[in-house]
Amino acid sequence: MNVNQFPDRIIEINQEQYLYFGGTAYLGLPTNKAFQELVVKNILKWGTTYGSSRNANIKVTAYENGETFLANYIKAAAVVTVSSGMLAGKLAIDELKKQTDTFFHFDDIHTAIQTNNSLPVFIDGKINSRLLDEKEEKITILMDAVPSFETNPIDLNILREIPKHKEVTLLIDESHSLGILGKNGCGIYSDINLPIKRKIMVSSLGKAFGLTGGVIASDTTFINQIKKSEIYGSAAGMNPAFVQTLADASEIYPKQHQKLVENLSYIDHKIIKEDSIKFDKNYPLIYLKDKNIINVLQANKIIIASFKYKQNADNLNRVVVTANHTKEDLDKLITILSSKNT
């Protein structure tokens, strides 16, 4: 389906209006007027792009402003922004390859943090025995904060079983939790308190945060290692107008997060809990197991996200709730989902 405008809560297809519950603009920022005005103001000041290395002799202060905001928001010692979430993941992985003997991964991690020869954390539902053996080594564990098809963050307590002679680094992709989970949408990074050497967070900023770019957050030592890497020095940075907007929008993000929280609470109080619907009041995705529901919704002028997450897999059908949806929008959705399951 092709559309000729940003797909916000309402989209037009073949001159007909539909409610839209798809995309990843969880905080509803791409069409938020106050947010747009900040972006435009910063483009007028900083230009449409800045194609220079971050390590060049001229330093653009927009980066310091935006990165200071993000470090405080995420509650990390240090952060660095890059041009995309994918690059954030690849930069972190490349640096970790220099420091890691063996990689392990949770199921269905995003391509951005995948690496060859990584071993699964779980085998047949049990923790991999390689994580428990007597070998002294440096290991890195890769995970999405909230995996695809799930509505809750991964329970990391299993990692407490790893013996102390394993030096553990945890790399978390928060592209679908930053801006959503945690206080004011700070994500899960700050709440992770495990007996490990280091935790690192990578995330796209093009989802909840509404700006094309990516972020890496960790301790100061690791972030400085990223800044010294060849790929980081060779790449242009995130658009400085966008990075400055992060700082300038510091009061908008929690307000939009509160609207999202209220929408999810409203759904939780009204929706009929059924096995065919996977929903949690803290997360803006509703997974639908009934393959026919997409047609029922479309017949009622509602479009949801439906696509193949992997080749040769069934379509992933999910409802995406944003801060911009009205109570009337939610009522219509809930009525159809409830009637389908009664």
Overall 3D form: globular
Low-pLDDT residue intervals, each spanning 5 or more residues = none
Strand order of the largest sheet: 3-11-10-9-8-4-5
Q: How confident is the prediction overall: mean pLDDT?
A: 93
Helix % is 25-40%
Query: From N to C, what is the helix and strand string?
Result: EEHHEHEEEEEEEEHHHHEEHEEH
- What oligomeric state is this? single chain
What's the helix count?
9
Characterize the biggest β-sheet: 7 strands, mixed
Distance between the termini: 30 Å
Question: What structural category characterises the helix and strand content?
Answer: alpha/beta
DSSP strand count: 15
Sheet-strand content, in percent, reads 15-25%
Radius of gyration: 21 Å
Description:
A hairpin with a 2-residue loop joins β1 and β2. 40% of the residues are buried. The chain has helices at 33-46, 61-74, 85-97, 220-227, 230-234, 240-248, 252-270, 293-299, 327-340; strands at 10-13, 16-21, 78-82, 102-105, 119-120, 122-123, 126-127, 137-144, 166-173, 198-204, 214-218, 277-278, 285-288, 302-307, 316-320. The chain contains 9 helices and 15 strands. The strands form 3 sheets. The protein has a 7-stranded mixed β-sheet with strand order 3-11-10-9-8-4-5, with helices on both faces.
